[in-house]
Amino acid sequence: MTIAADKTNRIGLTRDDYRGAHTTLCAGCGHNSITNHIVKALHDSAVEPHLLAKMSGIGCSSKATAYFVDRAHGFNGAHGRMPSLATGAKLANRELVVVGVSGDGDTASIGLGQYCHMIRRNLDITYVVEDNGVYGLTKGQLSATADLGSTLRKGRANDYPQIDICAVAIDLGASFVARSFSGDGKQLVPLLRAALAHRGTALLDVVSPCVTFNDHAGSTKSYAYVKDHDAPVNTPDFIAFQPEITVDYDPGTVQDVALHDGSHILLRKLDGDHDVRDPVAALRALHEARRSGEILTGLLYADPEIDDLCTRERLPDRPLAHLGIDALRPSREQWAALMAALV
Amino acid sequence: MTIAADKTNRIGLTRDDYRGAHTTLCAGCGHNSITNHIVKALHDSAVEPHLLAKMSGIGCSSKATAYFVDRAHGFNGAHGRMPSLATGAKLANRELVVVGVSGDGDTASIGLGQYCHMIRRNLDITYVVEDNGVYGLTKGQLSATADLGSTLRKGRANDYPQIDICAVAIDLGASFVARSFSGDGKQLVPLLRAALAHRGTALLDVVSPCVTFNDHAGSTKSYAYVKDHDAPVNTPDFIAFQPEITVDYDPGTVQDVALHDGSHILLRKLDGDHDVRDPVAALRALHEARRSGEILTGLLYADPEIDDLCTRERLPDRPLAHLGIDALRPSREQWAALMAALV
Amino acid sequence: MADGNVNDLCIQAATVNGSGSQSSNLVITKALFHMGIPVAAKNVFPSNIEGLPTWYDIRITPRGYQCRKRSVDILIGMNPATFADDAGNVRPGGAVIHEAALPRVGAAGREDVAWYPVPFARLARERIDAKPDLRKYLQNMIYVGVLAELIGLDPAAVERGVHDQFRTKPAAAELNLEAIRLGVEYAREHLVKTDPFRVEAMDGTAGRILLDGNRAAALGALMAGCTVLAWYPITPSSSLCEALIEHAQRFRVDPETGERRFAAVQAEDELAAIGMVLGATWAGARAMTATSGPGISLMAELTGLGYYAELPAVVVDVQRAGPSTGLPTRTMQGDVAFVHALSHGDTRHPVLLPGTVTEVYEDTRRAFDLADRLQTPVFVLSDLDLGMNLWMTPPLPYADEGIDRGKVLDAEALERTRDWGRYRDVDGDGIPYRTLPGTPHPRAGFLTRGSGHDENAFYSESPRAYRDTMERLRRKIDGARMLLPAPQVEEAGRPGLVVAYGTTHHAVIEARDRLGEAGAAVDYMRVRGLPLHPLVAEVIERHERVYVVEQNRDGQMEAILRQELPGTLCDRLRGVRHFNGVPIDAEAIIEPVLAGEAAARRPPARSAVA
Amino acid sequence: MADGNVNDLCIQAATVNGSGSQSSNLVITKALFHMGIPVAAKNVFPSNIEGLPTWYDIRITPRGYQCRKRSVDILIGMNPATFADDAGNVRPGGAVIHEAALPRVGAAGREDVAWYPVPFARLARERIDAKPDLRKYLQNMIYVGVLAELIGLDPAAVERGVHDQFRTKPAAAELNLEAIRLGVEYAREHLVKTDPFRVEAMDGTAGRILLDGNRAAALGALMAGCTVLAWYPITPSSSLCEALIEHAQRFRVDPETGERRFAAVQAEDELAAIGMVLGATWAGARAMTATSGPGISLMAELTGLGYYAELPAVVVDVQRAGPSTGLPTRTMQGDVAFVHALSHGDTRHPVLLPGTVTEVYEDTRRAFDLADRLQTPVFVLSDLDLGMNLWMTPPLPYADEGIDRGKVLDAEALERTRDWGRYRDVDGDGIPYRTLPGTPHPRAGFLTRGSGHDENAFYSESPRAYRDTMERLRRKIDGARMLLPAPQVEEAGRPGLVVAYGTTHHAVIEARDRLGEAGAAVDYMRVRGLPLHPLVAEVIERHERVYVVEQNRDGQMEAILRQELPGTLCDRLRGVRHFNGVPIDAEAIIEPVLAGEAAARRPPARSAVA
Ligand SMILES: Cc1ncc(C[n+]2csc(CCOP(=O)(O)OP(=O)(O)O)c2C)c(N)n1
Ligand SMILES: Cc1ncc(C[n+]2csc(CCOP(=O)(O)OP(=O)(O)O)c2C)c(N)n1
Ligand code: SF4
Ligand code: SF4
Ligand SMILES: [Mg+2]
Ligand SMILES: [Mg+2]
């Protein structure tokens, strides 16, 4: 353990308190950078480690839950099935801050059905897809997010169009959709913090190069390609809820999205007219970017008004998992009446 | 067997030659109407019965494959897994004309992943979703295509937004996306014929009221609701490939989509500016209709240029299933060389 | 009229589904019940919504047998498609009430039964003033009246039955009563009774209720404090989930805030359903799902995750017939072996085998305790017969005991524990201690995973850690033998023993009585859970011939017995198997057992010489 | 130096994965092979891409044993994380070549082994002119040179090994050879050999090739005329699919048009993969998938569909360790029971159990014939050890026979058949005749379904139709007993019998020799398929003690045997089980068998008195 040179956050924890086991991923893997950004965001947002639930599927990316916040509970589940595990966990204990880490194979291939239905339910989760366009852990097969025509290291070109998980999410009525790049902490950390503050499914599709299997020329998920084709639509700034602070900005250049917990995400518009409240505009931008080979990053769409799963299910504030048996059984009288009515 | 009063089609068959077993669905079920429209379309398009492959999942809708074209082969598979069965069948024998019939539960719940990946691969199939917003066969639970707020017969309101399988399909790069209504044969039959002529996945989301579980006030998939809220974007006319015929039309009001086999689908525009070649426009229209409670029908989007699965896989014209073993084994010489190279 | 024909008959209504006949049949069932006459009802229905043949058997026996009877005494023949076949099943001397318009061809031309033609359609058309679709339903209600008149149903009991059935719709009740009166009247005026069957009020249903197993299981879950239900509709388990939702809605909603102390999610499929259950139990709730065959197959992978990562889960499998889609509305005991070792690799899951409504209530309730105690998925194996038919049963008892949440360490307990390891076998029972997410203690957190791990829940590929974990898991599940219900044994030192489980029980009860009357009495043991209780082998040991009766083709329980019994005992096992989708009846047991017992009594040498 | 140390040793390279050591190990393996020395290589690698411990065992025995050896003669210790443990496994008198910088603490301080420290890192840094990441790889190549010098590898053979390994990259070959020379040089100058191990060229590999089972299986599929592969990547089966694609690319592409006589689809998951396979075989192609444990679980539902709708399919299960994700890169025989009865309801699937590279080639090839003949899914059970390790094997024979497509009626045959019914048992073997979609005949069409159906493929809920179909299916799969390979039996009238299957074979071979030397010779039977061949019971009948050796915890084959054997034979079975993820070795068998045989020889009474 290194001694924390870090300053402490609102709940008195240092950055080191948010670290996890040593990574066993490849040196240079984008996933490792994302881990670091997650650590920073969790620390900055002062998430209580014991309330954090780290969920993942199977893949190099999914292993990453082991590499941050040792103290928290985590569940490295089964391939493609993390959304259902996370759904159950949140239903059982809505106090948990659920952070999911998945891969593009995990989410867009085997897990696509669960992914879509999680979005439909608007499960309150920060859902990070570490998107490298390949199956890292099984040694470099193409994934469904690989772009049409992009090539594998061994030269095979992809004959199938990519599944754009951001576009699909917007179409399914997602409440928070962003894309970013593992190498861009300045953009990713505020997005992560906003996602944590958002009540609902916050999708972060983070392009995360696989240095071992998909970082060569011909790949559209390589460090070089992303750096060259990154087209940010906005620069996000995250303002945590602090009642006394007011922020001054020019509404012409900044869009302010107020989140449920009183936080704000301020978006400095780069692409003149990108309105994060307009789903069709976001879809248009994504379609156009796809055509031009650009990777649109930033907060693409947000609607903090949509009820999340637990709200829809009208769950009490007290976690279901904490209810005693007396609160759950019908009374003796109710039971007797029930039995009496059964002919 | 009734005696065919029908006239014969190009290959000398009457409408009766395209009929199947007697339906066991409820009287008045929208699915039965669709069956009739399918019979008409297959007859009109003179599909060879023995080349037809009728594929389905499980549900009232999926049973419908038994109720048309007795002579054809069919596969009433497993719940939600029809796309994979159809994919295998087409790979094995690309001469087959594959018609899939599914339900909204079958496609949008358990089968959503396979559905999306079928679209991504652009499997050459006419994929009909008989969409009633409920699970008919299991007695009336809400499905994922039920609109937010629509109510079940027993009064429970739907807390979750619908999955718009047309929008999702367009976002996944589908090559042919249409919506229609079981009661509107004039619109549906030409769409079916165009879908049969189209080489690629042709999605037909056909609203098909369930008279037993979802045809009451409060439902947005009832006969009454659909009749009141049907908003056709175009009136399709199908012109089968006949070299000598030329069609006259005013390009301002009609959009002509030429299909791979030389057929044309002529779309009389109703909604002034709906361009079926523009995916973003289609998405916009769908989003707007959803907001206003309208049901957009007609051909929403088409791109006949996209390669279908068998083309992408560069399969020979001769079906793989018909290749003899000699065409498949390496020669003795090749084998010997292969063995010699293995140290 | 022989007295044996009083309160001893089987009535079968052969109708078309979606025609409202279900209400008519329930009215008859409930009227009999209100007359104090024990009834057993079996609904044999098709896998569609409207227009296919359906049969409803109402069996009345003075001894209260609850199993199916093979032959029919009174047929109510309403379905043209099956009329001839149905008439063929009526026993000689029986009776047939039928739509007069049906052609009397084939077996429907038999002369050894009494025929009561009734022009139901015409009566409905001419005498009932209602909209056409309603009239279609009411037409079937007429046969209730005809039957009532013929066998002597008490009009007051019939009226109560109608009111039970249309509790919330008084107008409908009135219309239906009218239709019934029409039937009574017609029978009185036009039919001459020539059959011997009748019923008389008795005192055989006091202290009983009518209840289906699915609702009972739902009540068990409610009573156990289940707070998360994740499910996907599938016959015949849907009604279990729907009943649980209904009762949670009734008992778990805060009247002021509308808040629900219960979450029920209709998942997108069964993979998601079991995933949600595991996520919920991981986070500390009691959670369950219910499904049937195809759903079980889809839950295979995640059940293995639950086993290896050691998470509680309750899965009720309401079994139906067949591999694949099979016969979704028919019954079977076909998942026993599959469920017991569900998932790839070495796995083994505790299985509860209820045979009655009370048991499926208790077993479902206790499954939550077992799952929490053992930290593993637990299966409750019901079937369509138990789950979807109405059974006479004593009212379900209120649960007096508390619940067992098993070895969970909260922050305080953790503070007292110096050296906690998630997967350490501290107590020698193979069961480790767990903490729940959200526990406010810096040492509470760990990573749950389905990949290799050591005692401290760290990732590990160590051969030793892997083997040790697998050995411990074996010990843990082995320990369940003593936690599961012991077999129910009825022994009187006879050399023959019937072994059965689940709903096969009811046919065994009748078979045993009749075997006894035939001079071939046998002992009986009903297995109540897997892995097997030690008593099972002991009881088998005391018998020479052991008939393992089950409702599947492959003798799945027999195979499980063979895995555990010494060879000498294996050789005593004889499989008796019934697998056509309809519930097993006594004959299916009596015949092979009688043959087996007779062969054993016959001195072998003598017969060879003679 | 004792002669016993010539060509009789086990070399273990303990490295970090992703560091290029795999190439070094393959060069050593191939160099030995080129010297004519029989080798057996076992790669024990982690489930990640870079940075975790990995071991590569190269075993050389004059007798050509191909199983793992428990102790290590020469360790090449390169991994700081495991160095002490690795050193502990070296047998007394063994040798350790190691990175000089590694601390000699714990077992790494032993004095009973020879230590050969080499400053690999420094040598690479100072003496190799390459980019840093390449240098990391080359550093491991140095140990090839050190080892070569110490044990006497023929430089020409090493060079051939390098060229084999870098066939397409001559520049890389040169760089690697340079690194090797560096190692040779260093050893010559700085190390004094004090261990006894050395190798000498011999004639033990003539007519053999080195091949992994996955590639062999792929070649079997190619030879069988498989045209559709649907797969989802999963270790350890991915390389099978990739090999099949590679060879199809080589032999099935029309050089002119680029057309492929083969379709390979990477499915979205295993449910889709098996679905595509069933769709393809339904439409008349030969189709397969390959997967491992979790994938098998996900294929459960559709396998049942294949069984009940009677569709061919070939599924190769390359087994790995554990329930759930388990140990993805370790070996096991843990799916035998699950696969044999995969899916809910009553099901049973033929299973082939190859133990060698040749067998996995032949079995995969024949699985297509079997699947077509029986119209049912057929499983080939390989494992990681067989699939992913290199084995010495004779070249795979070209298939001389044609293929058996089973009972398929084309239009002509249909025309001759008056009264065809898809599911009719015409020949009494339970196997019906099928037609394929696209058959130009008006009577060819029918609807395939997983729901109840009668002989004519019509939808049916008839109890009789259901039962008859299930009975026929049982007969059909029962008939497979005679179609599957017979057990391989080596009998010499001894009272003890070892029963094994799959790769356990190789450890049995060594164990038998050594048991014989210890005066406890046993007979041997290797089961080659399920359902069991009748010979299996016959052979067991002739033995008093039967050791069922398998690589799983629950004795899955033993349980299958118990289901079929008479009780007296069941009592002769004794389970010998190994399940830690590394391939079984001879010791694991010798110990229990020796104990069992010794106990049997000891006269019980005498010892009690003495
Ligand atoms: C059911 C199942 N099928 C296949 C696998 C094998 N598998 C492990 S990880 C993985 C894909 C990983 O790709 P991705 O999700 O993109 O993660 P990455 O490694 O690229 O970060 C696969 C197919 C599995 N574990 N389970
Ligand atoms: C794996 C599996 N789960 C559940 C079922 C039960 N089931 C049969 S049909 C159906 C839903 C049918 O709904 P839909 O697809 O909308 O068809 P509809 O009946 O409405 O036409 C379900 C859940 C099943 N057959 N298989
Ligand atoms: S293989 Fe790729 S994704 Fe996996 S750890 Fe290495 S670089 Fe990252
Ligand atoms: S239940 Fe609904 S969907 Fe099913 S057949 Fe009847 S009307 Fe159609
Ligand atoms: Mg990836
Ligand atoms: Mg539906």
How would you describe this structure to a colleague?
- The complex is a heterotetramer, with two copies of chain A (343 residues) and two copies of chain C (610 residues).
- By secondary structure, chain A is of the alpha/beta class.
- Helices cover 29% and strands 20% of the residues of chain A.
- Chain A has a single domain (4-317), classed as Rossmann fold.
- Chain A has helices at residues 30-44, 60-63, 82-92, 104-108, 112-121, 165-171, 185-197, 223-229, 279-292, 309-312, 332-340; strands at residues 52-56, 73-76, 97-103, 125-131, 134-135, 141-142, 176-181, 201-207, 230-232, 234-239, 254-258, 264-269, 295-302.
- The longest helix of chain A is centred in the N-terminal third of the chain and has 15 residues, at 30-44.
- The mean pLDDT of chain C is 96.
- Chain C has four domains: 3-190, Pyruvate-ferredoxin oxidoreductase, PFOR, domain III (Pyruvate-ferredoxin Oxidoreductase, domain 3, 3-Layer(aba) Sandwich); 211-393, Thiamin diphosphate (ThDP)-binding fold, Pyr/PP domains (Rossmann fold, 3-Layer(aba) Sandwich); 407-485, no CATH class; 488-601, Rossmann fold (3-Layer(aba) Sandwich), CATH 3.40.50.920.
- With 610 residues, chain C is an alpha/beta fold.
- In chain C, the strands form four sheets. In chain C, strands 9-8-10-11-13-12-19 form a seven-stranded mixed β-sheet, with helices on both faces.
- Classes of the chains: A alpha/beta (343), C alpha/beta (610).
- Bound molecules: thiamine diphosphate (2 copies), iron/sulfur cluster (2 copies) and magnesium ion (2 copies).
- One thiamine diphosphate sits between chains B (58-61, 79, 103-106, 130, 132, 134-138, 143) and C (232-234, 270, 294-295, 298, 325).
- One magnesium ion binds next to helix 4 and strand 5 of chain B.
Relevant terms:
heterotetramer; A: 343 residues; alpha/beta; Rossmann fold; eight-stranded mixed sheet; three-stranded antiparallel sheet; globular; disordered N terminus; C: 610 residues; Pyruvate-ferredoxin Oxidoreductase, domain 3; seven-stranded mixed sheet; six-stranded mixed sheet; 21 strands; 40% helix; binds thiamine diphosphate; binds iron/sulfur cluster; binds magnesium ion
